[in-house]
Amino acid sequence: MHASGNADDDRVTRTHGQHEFTTVSSADIHVGRIFALRADEVRMPGGTTSSREVVEHPGAVAVVALDDAGRVVLVHQYRYPLGRRLWELPAGLLDVADEDPLDTAQRELAEEVGFAAEQWSVLVDIASSPGFTDEAVRVFLARGLSDVGRPLATGDEEADLVFERLPLSTAVRLVFDGEIVNAPTVSGLLAAQAVGEGRAQSRAPRAQWYDRPQRFPARRKQV
Question: Signal sequence: where (predicted)?
């Protein structure tokens, strides 16, 4: 965290521990196509070690795509772990080796909903659940949309995917109504509203991403 000159910010910046949480040993429990699970023994502040199970993830991107009328593109798709369909931003895994996240976002926007965008910026970076996984998602803002044609669905889930354009204000209301619960979507919609109202600024489209996952992509390079 970087100090911004505010006294409260300075206090938060100075409040941090000194212990190095070194890994004593590590063992793979499962290595799959889109994630891995490992168990680490970690040196704790009291001098003992403790077991930490970590889900390794390739990382992902999501896109708040706004048209000239201020409508946001949302997809409606079935999420098996929750047992229901969710409204979400167009999104995808960083599953192409060494692909820049911006390039992934542009590809996913075209593949999922058939749009390209002239203007791109970074809204927020999210650590999805840092207590047990290194999964991180970068959410982009895309404006100046043009229709490039949605390709035919090639996967089982994509065949059921539909999308709509909703006013951004309506989508934000659905967040607070509990209708939109997907974490990158919630974060992206609220961030886009803040940027649109001049309360925040987005970042350059290739801004540094400190927490982009590294372990699982490194595994794939070794295969």
Answer: none
